[in-house]
Write a structure and sequence with these properties.
Elements: E1 5-6, H1 8-14, E2 26-29, E3 34-40, H2 60-79, E4 86-97, E5 106-117, E6 120-129, E7 132-144, H3 169-175, E8 187-192, E9 195-201, H4 221-238, E10 245-257, E11 266-272, E12 280-289, E13 292-305
Antiparallel strand pairs: 1-2, 2-3, 3-5, 4-7, 4-10, 5-6, 6-7, 8-9, 9-11, 10-13, 11-12, 12-13
Helix pairs in contact: 2-4
């Protein structure tokens, strides 16, 4: 009903998300197609331990997650009236990170439902902070059955860790500033020219897996985009010419989510990053599980001097990932 405000208790009745992945504090509807959510951002949230200890920034992909959660509430009666399916992002397009959102900011999430037909919903989303637009995106939501693993995974093949891998997690931490609980790759298998291959082992114990339905754990699509970005980040910062620089995640041209990722899956992350110009670059990545492509992403980024902290007027208006 337009004008009705839902607090955390009602939101938890409508959404399966729980700590630390519930990205809404309140939500209200302005019309049948316009919904608004609020997320207060505070330094007490655990993500800021790892993103980043020196300069805390709300990850851009969690801004996308907040958009998705408002969009699910806005569309669930039409997409999944029985409440038995898994409403998820099928595709993201034209995602742009305009301004960093930091502890102390209040994130206003504005969702417009443009169209619902054939089991999908088209969404226009804009996140704002007091300084202006922080993020904007086009989302396509769909609903799928709660697919569960039916086969044992492939174990101990060419993707598993050996003493011949290029970088372990300790070496990765020398290149990128991400730390627990937001360091999302375990090792780098190889870097060959513009190509990097990384691996991520998925377990139920990770914070973002323990938030979904009590009986159904899947990796959010937003986290998958971050995993691809982090693999590309390592590759970019491992290049000697980029020493002393920091990559900023400018946006996603397009991302597709093809099959759910479950605890027990091993992710092979394949990213192609042509050599960037002096400031801007672009990369294409995909995640593969047991030979199947489960998601894809086309991303853009900027390189700046590490001395330019987020919020500097000389830095790009984008969220560092």
């Amino acid at each position: 009903m337009p004008g009705e405000v839902y607090g955390a208790e009602r939101i938890k009745e409508l959404l399966p998300y729980r700590y630390p992945m519930l990205m809404l504090d309140r939500i209200w509807s302005e019309s049948e197609t316009k919904f608004v959510g609020l997320k207060n951002i505070t330094a007490n949230e655990p993500v800021f331990m790892g993103h980043f200890p020196a300069h805390p920034i709300m990850p851009g992909v969690l801004q996308i997650e907040s958009m998705q959660q408002v969009a699910i509430i806005a569309t669930q009666k039409q997409l999944d009236p029985a409440g038995t399916g898994d409403i998820h992002i099928k595709m993201m397009r034209n995602v742009k990170f305009r301004r960093p959102a930091n502890p102390g900011d209040r994130l206003l999430i504005e969702i417009t439902v443009d169209k619902i037909e054939n089991g999908t919903a088209e969404i226009t989303a804009v996140n704002r902070i007091n300084a202006g637009v922080a993020c904007q995106a086009r989302l396509t939501l769909g609903v799928r059955p709660r697919i569960r693993p039916t086969l044992g995974p492939v174990v101990f093949d060419q993707n598993d860790k050996t003493d011949k891998i290029l970088m372990d997690v300790n070496k990765i931490r020398e290149y990128i500033p991400h730390r627990f609980p937001f360091l999302l790759i375990d090792y780098i298998l190889s870097i060959d020219g513009p190509n990097v291959v990384a691996v991520k082992n998925v377990t139920f114990n990770e914070p973002y897996m323990a938030n979904i339905y009590p009986d159904y754990a899947v990796m959010p699509g937003s986290i998958q985009a971050e995993i691809i970005a982090q693999a590309g980040c390592v590759h970019t910062l491992a290049r000697p010419e980029n020493a002393g620089k920091t990559p900023y995640y400018m946006g996603l041209v397009k991302a597709e989510y093809i099959h759910p990722i479950h605890p027990g899956d091993q992710l092979r992350i394949e990213v192609v990053l042509p050599k960037a110009g002096s400031r801007f670059g672009r990369g294409d990545g995909q995640i593969v599980v047991d030979g199947r492509v489960v998601s894809k992403a086309e991303m853009t980024f900027a390189l700046i001097d590490s001395s330019q902290v987020p919020g500097d007027e000389t830095a790009p208006a984008a969220n560092q990932q």
